[in-house]
Amino acid sequence: METNLTLNTTQLAMLNIGELAYLGDSVYDMAIRKGLLLRGVRKNNHLVKSAQHFVSATAQAAILKQIEPILTEEEHRIIERGRNAKPKKVPKSATQKEYADATALESLFGYLLLTEKELRMAELIEAIFEKVGVA
Do 42 and 132 form a contact (C-beta atoms < 8 A)? Predict the structure, then answer.
């Protein structure tokens, strides 16, 4: 029995933004960790500190602002859906706006994975590293 692990347009449209953000959180985190290793960050404590510059809600909100000018129209639509999500709880370390922007960024990465746009994800991760650098 063969299993189809891709979604058609209708199935993709039925996913709520929380589901995209849930997936995108992991995808984004993994891409950042891989990027750090590829850039020569090797010591565990330095990896953890460096990753914090990319994966906290506050950092993700700032990163989204920096990459918004290079996003496509389709990507902007996903970002707006993410920003409009109504979270049940916002962490104390972020404002409601920062958390909404972080959710939007995570949603974008979930969407890109589900639409099999790995090359675009790689382009965005590269742009993020160019703008943020490695601490």
Answer: no
Q: Examine the residue annotation and report whether 25 is marked as an active-site residue of this protein.
A: yes
Token couple for 115:
């639409």
90 in Cβ contact with 96 (< 8 Å) = yes
* Contact of 122 with 35, CB cutoff 8 Å: no
- In the set 25, 98, 101, 106, the catalytic residue is 25
pLDDT in tens, 26-47: 999 999 999 999 999 888 888 8
Q: What are phi and psi of 60, to 5 degrees?
A: -60, -40
Distance in angstroms between the alpha carbons of the first and the last residue of the chain: 48
**119 with 24: CB under 8 angstroms?**
no
Distances (CA, A) of 84 to 46, 78, 93, 107: 34, 10, 20, 11
Running DSSP on this structure, what letter comes out for residue 43?
A: S
What pTM did the predictor assign?
0.88
Say how many C-beta atoms besides its own lie within 10 A of residue 33's C-beta.
16
